[in-house]
Amino acid sequence: MRKFDGVECEVKKKKGFVATCECGWESDEKRTKEEAIISFEDHVRSNPSHHMFENEEQKNFFSIFLGILGFVYVVSPIDLVPDYLIGIGWLEDILIGVLSIFLIKKGVDGRSPTEIFSEIFK
């Protein structure tokens, strides 16, 4: 597999080398693997459908939503551990606040909550 500008290509050897794009395009048979890859790269550059979503970033809105929900919990007067238990109540709010920052930051990068939690607690 070869990737160019986010588009995957597979180069197979038949009589010559043939590059196949994920959109279904196939190159002509080339003498070398490098020629097939260059043909694929030219195809990606010249085909506007490959660049349609180029600037659109992938965001995980569920992670962002959980992060915002965490911040709402931190500033709300309702707590699982009351703040008058000095140290424990504040520590709980700080931990949820930090976790919310991670959820929002990684959610903007497209990471799911499962990936984020497994990265934090590994």
TrEMBL record:
It is a multi-pass membrane protein. The chain crosses the membrane at residues 61-78, 84-104. Keywords: Membrane, Transmembrane, Transmembrane helix. InterPro entries: DUF1232 (IPR010652). Coiled coil: none annotated. Signal peptide: none annotated. Pfam families: DUF1232 (PF06803). One of its GO terms (cellular component) is endomembrane system. Residues 68-96 form the DUF1232 domain. The keyword Transmembrane applies. It is found in: Endomembrane system. The keyword Signal does not apply. This is DUF1232 domain-containing protein. It comes from candidate division MSBL1 archaeon SCGC-AAA259A05.
